[in-house]
């Protein structure tokens, strides 16, 4: 039986991290819509004129990748990630919360490490002028920087949940 005594039971965390995560999720939706529109328009143009949108594969791959990154923090805040609680449902709520806090800390550590690595990657990509291989030759540094930002915010979101789990407020 769930204890509903906590005032924020079942509610996602609020505050600045939540605000930014929601904004990034909105950008993720827009990014995926752009990818879908470019794909659709390019297919229609191929059919009508035999000429697609120039660089459509580059645009779609970068927009799709960025879109996925943009949803990570929001998914963590909403606890919409894959949860396997088969082994913890029988545990007392407080113990299950501590187990969840541990795994949120692991998730935070992994995502913050990835953010740090991608930050270095964005800097190196910018410094060496790396560009996409294709018709548009788009610079990659900003796409890698988006990934670093997204992983950083995801790590912060996981830390917020870890603290809530550890305090028994979930």
UniProtKB/TrEMBL annotation:
The cross-references to InterPro entries, in alphabetical order and at most eight, read: DctQ
Q: Which residues form a coiled coil?
A: none
Q: Does the keyword Transmembrane apply?
A: yes
Please state where this protein is localized.
Cell inner membrane; Cell membrane
Membrane topology value: Multi-pass membrane protein
Q: Where in this chain does the record put each Tripartite ATP-independent periplasmic transporters DctQ component domain?
A: 36-164
Q: Does Chaperone appear among the keywords?
A: no
**Which residue windows are transmembrane per the record?**
20-45, 57-75, 95-115, 136-163
Q: Which UniProt keywords apply?
A: Cell inner membrane, Cell membrane, Membrane, Transmembrane, Transmembrane helix, Transport
Its family remark reads: Belongs to the TRAP transporter small permease family.
Q: What does this protein do?
A: Part of the tripartite ATP-independent periplasmic (TRAP) transport system.
State whether it acts alone or in a complex, and with which partners, per the record: The complex comprises the extracytoplasmic solute receptor protein and the two transmembrane proteins.
Q: What protein is this chain from?
A: TRAP transporter small permease protein
Record organism: Falsiroseomonas frigidaquae
